[in-house]
Input
Amino acid sequence: MGFLYRKLVRKLLFGFNPELVHDAVIQGARAAQAVPLVNSVVGLLARARELPVTVAGMRLRNPIGLAAGFDKNCEAARFLAGLGFGFLELGTVTLRPQPGNPKPRLFRLSEHSAIINRMGFNNAGAWQAARSLERLLPIPVPVGISIGKNADCSIEDAPKNYLETLKIMYPYGDYFAVNVSSPNTLQLRSLHSGEKLRRLLEPMLDFASGQKRARPFFVKIAPDLQQPELEAATELAAELGFGLIATNTTVSRDAVPKRWHVYEGGLSGKPLRQLSSEVLGKTAALARGRVPIMGSGGVFDGATALEKLKLGADLVQVYSGLVYEGPFIVKEILEYLHREGWRPGAR
Ligand SMILES: Cc1cc2nc3c(=O)[nH]c(=O)nc-3n(C[C@H](O)[C@H](O)[C@H](O)COP(=O)(O)O)c2cc1C
Output
């Protein structure tokens, strides 16, 4: 089935503007999930073997999740769950709606199996995302909500902006991903630094601990961090008790030819794999099992997923791989992990 996607469907889809295709896919998924029969057929075709794991108190049917940014408005979760994912990370959601950066802002680097995006957190805002999830409940797999900052909110005011978003989204998330690593919001990445990260996280963790159901938190980090920042973030994670997602997209263009260097934004897909895996490995070594870790960046098949797991990821996320390899990617990865005899906790 994956073969058919790569030979036929991808050729067709890649003939059109990337953002147009993405929007059409989300609209198609929304329509499909409203028809139980279509949903069941998709679920049947994409059904993957189970490989249950428990991470940060969440019981998941398998360790392969959808990375943030695919379903920014949390509107296609039921359909996406049908593709076999063990969990979905939705968003990034900001408090208020915002249009994002001017178009064009999404580019396919087909010959490199990569994407450059500078979307800039285009989304309909937290209230709309909450309404959308309310309509979709129950969603058959755990859902993470990625939270970001409005572009017009200063770095000083960021903690309040994140916290207000969290309060709106709290009833709908099984975990929360705090996004400080998008390269497309001015200065966002400065929130990685020790004290700023503490000021950001503490109020959110306080809020969560006062709720009936305490939910786990993850901070998504950039692959472009230097060792001291990585150490500070990991130590803070161990101290405050949040997990890490390594990594977001990169601003480095070292892994792609010169013609792509003028395209601003975050690079994802195959050219990100090595860098994100290096940062994942360093993070896992620093964390020494004290915090849960997700690996994201260049996962396109079973071998690249296994690489992340062996480097110390408890869970793995996929974005560009879904675009390039198609809707059966989770099934293909899980079959590979089964063949290789991978078991949770086996590194
Ligand atoms: C078009 C696009 C939009 C993205 N939007 C977000 C986002 O809103 N929030 C986020 O945390 N990551 C976002 N990402 C990053 C992905 O979640 C993922 O971490 C990254 O692409 C690396 O994984 P990949 O190589 O499998 O794509 C986006 C990626 C792409 C390609």
